[in-house]
Amino acid sequence: MTAAFAKxxxxxxxxxxxxxxxxxxxxxxxPFDSYAFVNSVVFAxxxxxxxxxxxxxxxxxxxxxxDFRLGLDDFKSIEQPSEGLGPLFNxxxxxxxxxxxxxxxxxxxxxxxxxxxxxDGKFHVVGFTTLFQMFSIPDHRCQAVMPPEVNVIARRMPIxxxxxxxxEAVADETLLALEDPFDRDRDGISGRAALVTDVATGQRRVxxxxxxxxIATLLTFSGDAYTNEMGITNDMFPLExxxxxxxxxxxxxxxxxDPEDFVDPRTGKRAIDNFEGFMKFLAPIPRGAITDEVRxxxxxxxxxxxxxxxxxxxxxGANRSAALNRKTLALFSDLLLHDVGTGxxxxxxxxEQNEIRTPALWGLRVRRPLMHDGSAxxxxxxxxxxxxxxxxxxxxxxxxxxxxxxxxxxFLDSM
Length: 415
Ligand code: HEC
Ligand code: HEC
Known about the structure:
Blueprint: H1 3-25, H2 35-42, H3 62-76, E1 88-89, E2 111-117, E3 123-124, E4 131-132, E5 135-136, E6 152-156, H4 164-168, H5 172-178, E7 194-197, E8 204-207, H6 218-228, H7 247-253, H8 271-280, H9 292-304, E9 314-315, E10 328-329, E11 337-338, E12 356-357, H10 379-385, H11 391-399, H12 402-413
Antiparallel strand pairs: 1-5, 2-3, 2-4, 2-6, 7-8, 9-10, 11-12
Helix pairs in contact: 1-3, 3-8, 6-8, 9-12
This protein binds heme C (HEC) (2 copies).
One heme C binds near residues 161, 221 and 279.
């Protein structure tokens, strides 16, 4: 392709983006895509998606909208082995696991992590990482195998990405101010910030993404997921996942030269930059109806102490993008690591075996099942599983009157 053509198509794309942006901000929404079929089967509300689900953040610029749109395209695309998919993989596209109720959400399936716990209770990674991919490309010689020393196996649910850019924009100091690792206030609840080295920037940061808060930024998550979920290597994560097989075996199946993600000359971006753009500007799911019962339930939520971990709002720091700059997000999470007795036995990033990051409760009404391993079918089941640091709070919840507990559920159903 000639440079002149490339330039023309880039500026045409921007004009198109501006037009779609105007249409979107005027409330004219485009129909979604074939994933909507999957969604309407999986998400049992008669195909009724909450208004605004999948929209970009309000107030973004045409250029930011272009990032969002390009990113959505890449996020939805299905990759082929000839483009680098595999040899080992969990899904052929990001949206394969992030599409309920619309692209960007989750999917009710779990992937597998595993490792070895020794006689002293110490955790060891077996082989390359703790992730064991479910699929392989034909002829399947490189199908993942669990080595015999594996004695810890954990399931993990996908996490929806609505509002992820706002989560990324919360300053580390805000999260550090919430932690109480030694429980100085003696409320039984500690909460630790997950300090990790961010691969994209090389900086020491507070992790906030993933069930173990193992990753700090959306670009790093994009690079990690592209390699580890899809087998598409990139300059940040250049090594193909091994899933218990040998390097020699991998070489027999891995026919595409690494890194498999590259800069598109038309846009100057890698696919992982596009994924970042989509997730950064994807809006949170709007709240459902706020009735008197919902308002009463919010008070119960605070009074029994759910809000100690599921902190109702956080504020983003200074940000170059006006749409992310000093915004309040109703996340209902402190993004810290807690032991609520549900840990999966896997050590990952800064998280210990029994620690899980408090999940955000926004968008709760459009995802099931709940908890990191999908072991709770209902909100009541999820609450019932909390122990450990949450024991005192759960005792107060159980002691609450029937109408109070009903109000609490109405409140959670409005998320
Ligand atoms: C096979 C299913 C699958 C595929 C494919 C997949 N994901 Fe995920 N995603 C998950 C699971 C499972 C988690 C939770 C991971 C964990 O903590 O162990 C997750 C978590 C995330 C998170 C963290 C969100 C948060 O708020 O904590 C981001 C960001 C993300 N995925 C982005 C992507 C991108 C980008 C792609 C494509 C390159 C992708 N995912 C492909 C299953 C998938
Ligand atoms: C000590 C901190 C803490 C307290 C207190 C707490 N939670 Fe949680 N909550 C968590 C953690 C951590 C998880 C994730 C556990 C897992 O996935 O294994 C969680 C998970 C959940 C989930 C499932 C969310 C999802 O996306 O899967 C719901 C719903 C929930 N909590 C509601 C509540 C309610 C309601 C209360 C008060 C009665 C409460 N929590 C009190 C930390 C807490």
